Amino acid sequence: MTGVLKNEWGFKGAVVSDYFAINELVTRHRMFANVKEAAERAIKAGVDSETPDPQGFTYLPELVREGRVSQARVDDAVRRVLRMKFEMGLFENPYADAATADAKTASPDAIALAREAAQRSMILLKNTNNLLPLDPTKIRRMAVLGTHARDTPIGGYSDVPRHVVSVLEGMQAAGQGKFAVDYAEGVRLTESRCWSCDEVKLIDPK
User: Fold this and answer.
1) How far apart are the C-alpha atoms of 152 and 167, rounded to whole Å?
2) At a CB cut-off of 8 Å and minimum separation 6, what does 44 contact?
């Protein structure tokens, strides 16, 4: 995160830990004896901010006094977070207008940026015989298989989205008037489609 992301690629933003990730270096992954050690390694690795609540990073003053983390590294982390807040105008306008916030979501500019980010982040591991991009004039029927090709779960942080375009919907729209699209669920491994359910019940293989 430091050598490549920040130094080589010139990333000026802040690196934020995932939900309780620093604490889970101790509790889940068992990489360190305590959260103080985990915090030391995290900030040295390039993490600038801890979410959702500070647990490991509460030890930063102590780690600096002990000489285990440099003051310069802490300053860099703070600088990155403050820079984003300044650029967002949070010091001049710290409070959002809840009445207008919803209307500003999913604007045409935001949708265009999201689409561009999705396109540029795709990685194609193999493209045998230059199959992609697909040529609609050479397709008569297309089979779309899999449970998530239709229901498209997007994780537990997304709440209820305004609209989600599934793989099936996208192919049906692209093929309209050009080629037929057939769908089958294929093999479903569990009864529940809930991503965060505690109990997983396997389907009857019969």
Assistant:
1) 8
2) 69, 73
Q: Is the pTM of this model over 0.85?
A: no
- CA-to-CA distance for 39 and 198, rounded, in angstroms? 29
Whats the size of the chain, residue-wise? 206
Which residue in the list 18, 53, 75, 151 is annotated as catalytic? Answer: 18
Rounded Cα distance, 27 and 29, in Å: 6
The whole-angstrom separation of Cα 94 and Cα 17 is: 23
pLDDT at 198: 59
Read out DSSP for 103-144? GGTT-HHHHHHHHHHHHHH---S--GGG-PSP-GGG-SEEEE
To the query of whether residue 102 is one of the catalytic residues in this protein, the response is no
Query: Measured between alpha carbons, how far is 15 from 1 in angstroms, rounded to an integer?
Result: 8
On whether the CB atoms of residues 2 and 73 are closer than 8 A, the answer is no
Residues 23-48 have pLDDT tens digits of 999 999 999 999 999 999 999 999 99
What does the CA dihedral 44, 45, 48, 51 come to, rounded to 10 degrees?
-110
Residues 6+ apart with CB under 8 A from 142: 171, 175, 179, 180, 181, 182
Torsion angle of the four alpha carbons 91, 95, 100, 106, in this order, in degrees rounded to the nearest 10: 60
List helix spans (H) across the chain.
21-27, 35-45, 60-65, 71-88, 98-101, 108-121, 148-151, 167-175
